[in-house]
Amino acid sequence: MATSTLIQFLGPGEAGDTSNRSQVETFLASSAIAKGDWVSLDPSKSGADRCLYVGVIDTSAGAVPLGVPVIGVALEAAAIDGEVRVVIAGYVAQANVASLTAAGIALALDTTTSGRAVAADAANVNLAGVSLAAAAGNIAPCMVLKKF
Fold first, then answer.
1. CA spacing 20 to 30 A to 78: which of 85, 86, 95, 137?
2. For residues 61 and 29, which has the higher predicted lDDT (pLDDT)?
3. Contact status, residue 92 vs residue 142, Cβ threshold 8 Å
4. 100, 102, 110, 88: which is closest to 130 by C-alpha?
């Protein structure tokens, strides 16, 4: 599952290439995941499966505490036990964010909508990334902060 990031190609890339500015890992989904959802490791699993399974970050209890590791953003939808590729560091073109998110805002996880990021503030301190453009329809390009 682990990928290597020893060499970074900085020359002109192919169409749609971001010059390898993202690190992507493959996990298994412990819940249904939508494209663009912010995910975390699943602490309900046992043994090494705790680092193999990810799920949408549940914010039903309010702010996501610092002890919950925000792993990254899902690149595609996944069903339970299906494989899901996750940007764990760097650029992601479509991340779920609050509708009024502006460009250049530090992001934390929303206290009301699972899997969505909002502007970091005193109540939302578990930083996950930075928005790179204003949100359109709850989607924005983001830079994911590496935590895994």
1. 137
2. 29
3. yes
4. 102
Task: Indicate the SS3 state at residue 47.
Answer: helix
Euclidean distance between CA atoms 137 and 140, whole angstroms? 8
Catalogue the E-assigned strands of the chain. 22-29, 38-41, 53-56, 70-74, 83-96, 106-109, 117-119, 127-131, 139-144
Q: May I ask the CATH architecture of the domain 24-144? A: Beta Barrel (2.40)
pLDDT for 76-117, tens place per residue?
999 999 999 999 999 999 999 988 888 999 998 866 777 888
> Tell me, what's the pLDDT at 139?
94
Domain ranges (residues) in the chain: 24-144
